[in-house]
Structures are given as C-alpha cells and as structure tokens.
Amino acid sequence: MKLRSVALAIGMVLCTPVQSAGRDLVWYGGAEADWNRLGSTAYANDTFSRRSVDSIDDSGLGYGLFLGARRDNGSTFLGGELGLQDGMRDASGSYAGDPLLSLEDNYSVSLSAVGGYRLNPKTHVTGRLGYVNTSFDYTATGTASGSLSDSGDGRLSGVVLGIGILRQLSSRLSMRAEYRHTEYFDKISTGVAGDPISNNFFEFDDVTRDAFSVGLTLDF
What we know:
By secondary structure, the protein is mostly beta strands. It has one helix at about 1-15, and strands at about 25-45, 50-75, 75-85, 90-95, 100-120, 125-140, 150-170, 175-185, 190, 200-220. An 8-stranded antiparallel beta barrel has the order 1-2-3-5-6-7-8-10.
C-alpha cells in the first residue's frame, strides 16, 4: 500500500501538464556508479511444509549506462530514459544450515519517465517512475528429503521509483545523485532434482533492490 501511494504521487508529478514554450528536445547520455542492496525472502518446500528461510540479502558496488531525452520547460523538465545496470550481488541464506539458497542478479534493463523541478538556476530535484527487467541466477542445495540440488536462471519484472538531485556543472555537463527502490512483481520458483514424489521445490519471493547512485550526464 505504501509503495502504491508513493508510485501514484510520483506519477502525478511526472504527468502534470507543463507549458509548451520550452526549449527543443535535449538528448543526453551518461554513466553512473552505485551502491545497492539485493534482498529476498526464500522458502524451502517439501512434502510436509513450506519452510521460510531467513530473509537473504547482499550489497555491493555496481555501475550503469543510460540514454535519454527531456524537454525543458522553464522551471521544470519532463522526459524518458533507457538504462542498463550491471548486477554483482549474491544474496544467500539457509534454514538451520539446510537447505542453502542463493540468488544472484546479472543485469537489468529499465525504461523510466523522469521529471525535475528547478530549485535554483543550476539545481533540480528529480523524480523517476519506471519499469525494470532483471536477469537472475539461482542455486538451491539441501537434504530436506533426500539429496537435492538445482541451479538455473530466470527473469523478473518490477517497478522502480527514484528521487534525486541534478546539478549543472557546465553548459552540457551535469552531475546527478539518486536513491532508487525496485520492487519485483513475481517470484522465482524451481523444482529440485531428487525424489520427485516429495514435490520438493524452492522459491525466491519478495525480491527488492535499493540503490544509491552518482553519475555524470552529458547533453548531446
């Protein structure tokens, strides 16, 4: 409910009509570095119960590239942005040491609406609302009912929300800092090799990502 309220508020800001007497469309691109945290709630399922593994998470440094276009309208701007972010997190955990579950993100592609409001001639506060698709690798091993082992990959889609600051350094170069929260819609479920009668499988649910990024933006 809280996430939906925040998304609605950012969406209303991004979709607010602006005056049409702005500058021409400005194309831009850039690179960014970030610190981000990957988290999930993992479950181990066997014949008798659906056992929750402690929430798993991992954090680390990453980087990304982006390309976008915006239209400046005096004190505001509105545009769209395509992003590509790497993934180097490996979130793992276990249930009393067995089974061991691990979830690793590979890379993400995002498409976002971005907007900004001018605080002073060189500084904007910015907002973001977008779609993200991420590739994951998973590993699940244990002995809950026989010898169990499985690994593979999957993709999850979700919504990304962001808020930040854009600071102009020169006529074409700017620096930006941003906090982003990503919440994925679905879960990764996997059957496990072993005793098929016991219907063993693992799940990675409630997958989220929180990131703090700093980047440089160059207007073309």
